[in-house]
User: What shape does this take?
Amino acid sequence: EVQLVESGGGLVQPGGSLRLSCAASGFTFSSYWMHWVRQAPGKGLVWVSRINSDGSSTSYADSVKGRFTISRDNAKNTLYLQMNSLRAEDTAVYYCARGRSSSSWYYDYWGQGTLVTVSS
Amino acid sequence: EIVMTQSPATLSVSPGERATLSCRASQSVSSNLAWYQQKPGQAPRLLIYGASTRATGIPARFSGSGSGTEFTLTISSLQSEDFAVYYCQQYNNWPPATFGQGTKVEIK
Assistant: This one.
């Protein structure tokens, strides 16, 4: 059974940092592109970042470029999102999601999400 | 960036009735369109990809159609568990792969 389990969310002050983790199991993690998608309270889904299967290529939404860094450890089957210089508008539930393929960026499995709240 | 527009924002339907949800892209996305269902407090669940292919385990009452810029998700006979928010997503032009704002299907 495919499972994605996020952790690391919490309350952080504006300008602060957090690192989110997503532990994967039930599939060959190293074969899949992985993504982070976020959802502000009461709002829709917004793609944040993606990383290719071996970690050599990444991309980011303009809203987080230069502040967030996606990475992965295929030996530990874990995806990460390092979030720096956090702003109030980064408040959201952050989901990790498995991309169906390198060219098909739809998401066949999602984690349960972890809430990040940026507030003083 | 391709903008996805869903309509209506809210759809009130009685159990057993048909629901038709629309999604429009600001430019052609071919058939690279997915639909997701999200219930309160839960992660999204993939329903449809390739505009019309049901994902694994999705009941046959869910069907997708369309190509180019106009897409439809139809739920043929609404069950109680189908009341949720539905999102479309294009993955033809990326990054970013963009989502619509969602359609809430509520009990009439």
User: Anything to note?
Assistant: The beta strands of chain B are 4-7, 10-13, 19-25, 33-38, 45-49, 53-54, 62-67, 70-75, 85-90, 103-107. DSSP finds no helices and ten strands in chain B. Chain B touches chain A through 22 residues (CB under 8 Å).
